[in-house]
Amino acid sequence: MEPQFVRVGSLAEIADGELRGYEIGGMHLAVAHLDGRVYALSDECTHRSCSLSEGELDPEGQVVCRTCGSRFDLDSGEPTGGPAVEPVSVYLARVEDGWVEVSVTSWAHNGTEG
Questions:
Q1: What distance in Å separates the CA atoms of residue 76 and residue 48, rounded to the nearest whole number?
Q2: Tens digits of per-residue pLDDT, 34-55?
Q3: Do the beta carbons of residue 27 and residue 20 sit within 8 Å?
Q4: Domains in the chain, ordered, with CATH?
């Protein structure tokens, strides 16, 4: 089955190397733009339930939680530094005609070309 994508915002809203939070149908997502690729993951740290989109994006492709310092891999959602031990959900993301689109019904292993 082909994934269904939902437009979340313009790529121009997310500078390369930055994160931005979006809400789609009650689901909170953190969208990252890094090296021309876009990534989407759950916007909730699995350790303290705080917003990952308010954290930082490091150049190695990890989101760093601003509250507890947990680190999550953009491709897999796996924690790469504690205290979090549970992964965050990641979703397929793409750029179409300058718009960031996310498939919240499909779990993905990696971001897509932007």
A1: 19
A2: 999 999 999 999 998 899 999 9
A3: no
A4: 6-113 (2.102.10.10)
Q: What letter would DSSP give residue 86?
A: S
The pTM of the full predicted model, rounded to 2 decimals, is 0.88
Give 56-59 contacts, CB < 8 A, sequence gap 24+.
56/19, 57/17, 57/18, 57/19, 57/32, 59/17, 59/34
Query: How many other CB atoms sit within 10 Å of the CB of residue 1?
Result: 5
**CA 78 to chain CA mean position, Å:** 12
**Closest by Cα among 1, 29, 14 to 95:** 14
